[in-house]
Amino acid sequence: MRIRLFRHFREGIKNLVRNGWMTFASVASVGITLLILGVTLVIALNAQQMSSYVAGQLQINAFFKMSATPAAEQQTLAQIKALPGIKSVQFVSREQGLKDLQKTLGAQYNTIMDGISLKNTLPDKAVIEAVDPRQTVQIGEEISQLPTIDHIQDGQQFVDKLFRFLDVVRNIGLAFVVGLIVTAMFLISNTIKLTIFSRRREIEIMKLVGATNWFIRWPFLTEGVLIGAIGAAIPFAAIWAAYHWMYVHVGGAFLGLVFPLMAVSVVTAKLAWILFGVGLFIGVWGGIMSVRRFLRV
Amino acid sequence: MIEMQDVWKEYPNGTPALNGVSVQIGKSEFVYVVGPSGAGKSTFIKLMYREERPTRGHIFVNGFNIERLKHRKIPLLRRSIGVVFQDFKLLPNLTAAENVAFAQEVIGVPVRQTRRRVREALEWVGLADKADVLPSHLSGGEQQRIAIARALVNNPQVIIADEPTGNLDPESSWGIMKLFQRINDRGTTVVMATHNREIVNTMRKRVIAIERGQIVRDEAKGTYGYED
Description:
- The complex is a heterodimer.
- Chain A is of the alpha+beta class.
- Chain A has helices spanning 5-18, 20-57, 70-82, 94-105, 110-118, 136-144, 156-198, 200-208, 213-251, 264-294, and strands spanning 60-64, 86-92, 125-130, 149-153.
- Chain A has 2 domains: 5-55 and 159-294, no CATH class; 59-154, Alpha-Beta Plaits.
- Chain A contains 10 helices and 4 strands; from the N terminus they run H-H-E-H-E-H-H-E-H-E-H-H-H-H.
- Chain A has a 4-stranded antiparallel beta sheet with strand order 2-3-1-4.
- The longest helix of chain A is centred in the middle third of the chain and has 43 residues, at 156-198.
- By secondary structure, chain B is α/β, with parallel strands linked by helices.
- Chain B folds into 2 domains: 1-80 and 158-228, P-loop containing nucleotide triphosphate hydrolases (Rossmann fold, 3-Layer(aba) Sandwich), CATH 3.40.50; 91-155, no CATH class.
- Chain B is built from 7 helices and 10 strands.
- In chain B, helix 6 links the parallel strand 7 and strand 8 (189-193).
- In chain B, helix 3 packs across helix 4 and helix 4 (111-124) crosses helix 5 (140-153).
- The longest helix of chain B is centred in the C-terminal third of the chain and has 16 residues, at 170-185.
- Classes of the chains: A alpha+beta, B alpha/beta.
């Protein structure tokens, strides 16, 4: 038998309107759940983007021993170049290094820097980039074994800390979401039970005149679907608007220096899939749970 | 049409309701089911449209084997039966026509066809002019006519009625009984549980009397037989 979706959705909407407050509670519950899920998701997506961006920026600073002669340094540079997976090697002399430092610190420290420049104790260094940023650590270790190299510095520690922090954020977010999903399902299921209760006479008559169980179930499932969809649409719109605002006002200027935000269209596309997917899942599941026990013929 | 073979029914709480009932009701028969309250009349009727399941025994209705009937197939059995109750069981927020149409909507009849059939059913019970009235604005007799129109609209082979005149005054009751007679005249089987002695004794039909869960009397053109 064909499923008359139009009729079932009409009935579902009627149900929602009939128990307005419970509908509101369920929609709000789904909405809050998905809002937190969505925000966590946006953070996670950007964190991912950020870590690959940061990793891409990673360089190895290899500092030469003060005792190394220029000839030995040149030989070492050639050795480094010959290693597999090296993208570029750049020599930075101690004089250049001092200028760079001066530039980073800014003009107000110029007098101090001038004093230091008379007695430059900075070592020469090589700045190395790996083809694959994930190999940075391994390459760094190889380089540090070279006889003219005193020590090396890579961004690994920074990245590790960053990742650990982002993992914690994500896990807390997910724990919240799991708890909230259970609450949301419970509320939806209760809303639908209320409808079933208020319509039990109708259901009784439907059964008597020979309605199939699916015909009776459908309106309650559409009710769940509608709660899920509305509950997803509201946080989706909110996050979209907020993210768009942030991208326009903040993304380019402030954080742009450290890492770029993900494009709005990419984030919202993923957000739409996940929020509506989870929302509909919660709704349908809530519907099935409440209908199952009540419709035993 | 309807056949029961040594049917027993005991409710989950241990109350025995039927103790070995065997009966055959043929096509186009008109049968009264009488007996004291609590004797098992309602159980007897509910078993026919699979509202209850027998604890033991075999039941066949309109070619359906009730004990073997899968849950999925129950709606098909119900569509071959029209059921009428003492309390009408109309939906208060639907008009007379909508109440009748409900039975068609539920089994997936196209709207246009429903409209025609609903009009015919309402004409058949003599309430074509009350199509758009809510049940609360109808008399008891009129409400029962709407319920009968709803039971008829899907063209069942059997009409089962549980005390259809129980809530009605004598005059309305007779109107309803004439309707059942006409239903029966077109070849539909009618099974009616009743306490109405006057009706049973006047409109003589086959009478099945049930006491303490057993059939104690089954006679053609029988009488009510209780003093109550």
